[in-house]
Amino acid sequence: MSTWTTVDCEDVEWFRDAVEMPSAARGAAATLARRIGLDGYRASEVALAVTEAATNLRHHTQDGALLLRVLRTPEQAGVEFVTVDTGPGMADVPAALSDGASSTGTLGIGLGAVSRLADAFDIHSLPGRGTVMAAQFWAREAGDAPTGGVRPVASGLTRPISGESRCGDAWAVRLDEGGEAGARTPGSGSAPSAEPAILVMLCDGLGHGPLAALAAEAAVTAFRRSTARLPEGLLRDIHTALRGSRGGAVAVARIEPGAGRLLYCGIGNVNGVLLGPGTRNGLLSAPGIVGQQMRALRTFEVPLRPESALIMHSDGLTDRWKADDLPGLLRHTPAVLAGQLLREAGVRRDDAGIVVVKGAW
Fold it and tell me: Where would I find the PPM-type phosphatase domain in this sequence (predicted)?
């Protein structure tokens, strides 16, 4: 059995209006915390932390946004918020997290107290570029120490095109607990390892709006229900599920830490990168539209490098981002890493989606 953790993420809402953000996000956070079963005291702590983060965005950043969402494991549910802004960044993050350092006009608890209220907290700031922060809140009794939260091997972000409330991009991850080694797939030369593996999928529904979102949701459902263990088989099942829909660009990866390899198969304009310290390996996708016209599939196999991360994103992010412009990025959690790349490379004229897998090898 694997020791990796995966979570299902349910995005609730992006808050972008600087003036309305603190009050709107506070109310939504408190309501969400109670809805998933957190007690009143813990729900008030969630609301307090969200208010501090949102007010900080309003007073000290440009183009700040806050995403509120639910994290679910088979045993429990928690609240996570992610903030993304384009500047000015913090030159000294430890100082900003120290007691007594509070943003002007906030409740005065400071980002350090936010980090203590959270069960898991991560922040990455680049002076002159921007900051991304992620905080998780799970059930705990008043006065108890943070639980440590859940440290998933994968996380991602989706953001709808300006003017839309539903996003046509979606991602999903699940575990293959292994067992007997599978048979080779004809024409691919690949066979699933007997050891546990991580399966990850990103779909960019064609166009944007509700119909694109329906296609992306169908891809997620098919990915989760499929019994296939290899990327090609999963893509075929997704192709079948998307017939009659708009279709989309889809990529699927299988990560086998025990075997030290990554299997990758994609159709359409999904960008895949295996990013390591000083290395960047691009992963190729074939032309086509899953659900409509899909050519012969081809799986690419690449070795996993220590301390590397798999990054998959739609064309709602440009592929011109440079890791050298984001020092320290690979030391952070998948959620913060995804947020920094969304901040750095995201465009507003299309839906944007990104998923990151790291920490399992």
Answer: 176-359
- Res 288 pLDDT > 60: yes
Residue 111 to residues 32, 49, 58, 61, 295, Cα–Cα distance (Å): 22, 8, 14, 15, 51
> H/E/C letters for each residue in the chain?
CCCCCCCEEEEEEEECCCCCHHHHHHHHHHHHHHHCCCCHHHHHHHHHHHHHHHHHHHHHCCCCEEEEEEEECCCCEEEEEEEECCCCCCCCHHHHCCCCCCCCCCCCCHHHHHHHHCCEEEEEEECCCEEEEEEEECCCCCCCCCCCCCCCCEEEEEECCCCCCCCCEEEEEEEECCCCCCCCCCCCCCCCCCCCEEEEEEEEECCCCHHHHHHHHHHHHHHHHCCCCCHHHHHHHHHHHHCCCCCEEEEEEEEECCCCEEEEEEECCCEEEEEECCEEEEECCECEEECCEECCCCCEEEECCCCCEEEEECCCECCCCCHHHCCCHHHCCHHHHHHHHHHHHECCCCCEEEEEEECCC
Does residue 50 contact residue 66 with C-beta atoms inside 8 Å?
yes
Nearest to 50 by CA among 16, 21, 17, 12: 21
pLDDT tens across 6-15, in order? 899 999 999 9
174, two tokens: 């699940």
**Structural domains for the chain:** 8-137 (3.30.565.10), 154-358 (3.60.40.10)
pTM of this structure: 0.93
pLDDT band at 103 (very low <50, low <70, confident <90, very high): very low
Crossing angle of helices 40-60/110-117, nearest 10°?
A: 150
238 neighbors 270 (Cβ within 8 angstroms): no
What residues form DSSP beta bridges with 169?
A: 204
